[in-house]
Write a structure and sequence with these properties.
Two copies of one chain form a homodimer. Helix content of chain A is 35%, strand content 37%. Chain A is an alpha+beta fold and 81 residues long. Chain A has a single domain, classed as 2-Layer Sandwich (Mth169, Chain: A). Chain A has a three-stranded antiparallel beta sheet with strand order 2-1-3. The radius of gyration of chain A is 16 Å and the shape is elongated. Chains A and B meet through strand 1, helix 1, strand 2 and helix 2 of A and strand 1, helix 1, strand 2 and helix 2 of B.
Amino acid sequence: MKAVVLVRPKDGILDPQGEAVQGSLEKLGFEVGSVRVGRVIDVDVTARDADDARAQVERMCSELLANPLIESVQIQVEPAS
Amino acid sequence: MKAVVLVRPKDGILDPQGEAVQGSLEKLGFEVGSVRVGRVIDVDVTARDADDARAQVERMCSELLANPLIESVQIQVEPAS
């Protein structure tokens, strides 16, 4: 079962990569407000059903994929095609 | 106007970060197939409407945010709340 995990820096947490991208976009002539850069992680997980997959991915996040102190996590589970 | 840009390594392109995460998840006892790691970029763009925002973000991708040779891009534009 495929899951998409979006890991983003929380509001208020410094994001130097986002600031660098914002500066570069402005130099290129784009009018942008804030830019934030996070990670998208596509995981193919062996699970009984969508609920099981989501529970497993939540455990993966707390054990490895994200730092809950400074990052927020959004999980989308897609049924296997 | 807010846009979410998902930048992922294309199929067939090596993804060492994804392989490292996959190995770590397996060591933690998770049964996972492939793991791929990309970037999520949240951009607040000044635009007349959603079409203009999408066109600008597409230009940002080709000029800075992604390497079309090895990365695929997915753009979601959300109306400002």
